[in-house]
Amino acid sequence: MTSHDVVDATTQDGSHPRPQLLRNHWHDLSGEWGYARDDARTARVHDVIFDRRIVVPFPPESPASGIHETGFTPCVWYRRTFGPDELTAAGLTPERSRVLLHFGAVDHSAAVWVNGSLVATHHGGQSPFDADITDAIDPAAENVLIVRAVDDPDDVSALRGKQDWRERPHSIWYHRTTGIWQPVWLECVPESSVEAVSWRTDLPAASIEAEVELAGRVDPGSWVRVAVRHAGELLAEVRVRTGGRRHCPVRLVIPRQLNGQAYEELLWSPAHPTLLSTSVTLETSDGAVVDAVGSYLGLRSVAVSSDHLLLNDRPIPVRAVLAQNYWPETHLAATAGMLRREVELILELGFNTARVHQKAEDPRFLYWADRLGLMVWAETANAYAFDERAIAGLVGEWMALVRRDRSHPSVVVWVPLNESWGVQHISHDQRQSALSRSASDLTRALDGTRPVISNDGWEHTASDIWTIHDYEPSPDVLAARYGDPKALSDMLAGFGPAGRRMSVGRPETDGPVILSEFGGVSLETEGSDDWGYSSASDPAAFEAQVTSILAAVRDAGPLAGFCYTQLTDTGQETNGLLYADRSPKFPAERIRAAVTGEAG
Description:
This protein has 600 residues and is of the alpha+beta class. Helices cover 18% and strands 29% of the residues. The protein has a 7-stranded parallel beta sheet. Strands 3-2-4-10-7-8 form a 6-stranded antiparallel beta sheet. A 4-stranded antiparallel beta sheet has the order 1-12-5-9. Strand 15 and strand 16 form a beta hairpin. Helix 3 crosses helix 4.
């Protein structure tokens, strides 16, 4: 193996489940698995009868799974085999002898057995996990993989987001997602390997910091080499001795000759989503390559001024859409192609930002956001209760998600809480306000390069951006509320449109203000249970209402941006700009003109 064998992560097809840490070989275990329900949650691994088939990674509630049972499903089991062919495809060689089994996400608590040996347990329905299964397998034989997932539909302390606690969806809540809903895959690595890489950029210093995590026994004389390229041209390269440590910080400086206009061309933005290809190699003391991975980064900065979101130290108006990223056939799960198309659709409609709502989205979505130039507000699903289990779940899951996604240049804002979900008494309970502040500060401790919204919509405790949720249907009222600086300042100092305090222990009213939920207009359909925050009786009325609401908010000078609710119809919540099948409710070019204010 040489450093030239490294995959260029900026030019991939978007199918890899971990797009910022690529090796040449991996194998997707998606497809048909054995399946069984265990509603009593009493079965033991050796007693389960797998008498049905399910298509992984689609949840059993979805049609794409082949099961399509939308009732309560508290416990499910999965089974499949893999053998020499799958291991060869995953890269198994004498030099790459460690076999890793990866799970993108399993909702909510998972246990994994290989050939009868328990190899992993995991709690948290959105975060990835893996297991080294080398000692549990026979490389020359068929191996049995079994997964158990428990997802209690009554558990309101679990992070569940928009998954309904009732058996049938109602209002803004949807069918549940149980079990495996992101890819399962195999990867083979050397005895000593690169386990993780994260990137941080400093534009004024023209520098890049890489945090490299190693696994296995690390020889004290070994080296880590990091190289950064653009369009095949080497921009910077550094080699540091590991000293036997598993954690290796590496700092690279972009050459001075790239300062000025050439340097500007390297920056990532929605208009020019430039990505820099990177390679990380682990080398022996004499320079032989032990392991090599491909990654990428975007040179960019995110900050706030008193009245703007700043990208690369320049104001950028936020034109966002609230995206549930839920599909009729697959529910919260998606294929790689569906994730790419979702990014493309959002951009085609004139938005430059997506607020993926109450869901930590699949990294393959972020890959296309990085490549195509879509800013993303990264949000987690929230619990509905406030107790120690909910606190532990939020802190543990959120830490894992921030670590997973902090190197994506498209992610520009972190949102750990929404509308006081799980902290319903935040205005009066000091413990709940402490959780909101602590989650925000924890986020900053893990990643100090992005703004944090402590509680999107109202009752802000420690937000860098003021956000407001307002489903007022009258364009005139919206224009008066958000076009007048004093009226807006008075709102921030008091109560918002939903009757909730705008601030809890945040006395300052400075900082940019974004109307992060509004619109929500439903196009009524005869004989259906359509739901929306307001409604229009026919397509012409729908277009007129949406266009006038967008115009009122778009032209409100004191606002730093907006987030329209929502991209698509989702179940009974029919307030999308698009139908559930992603077709537009009025011509896409006219939606784009309404969003941007530019003539179609």
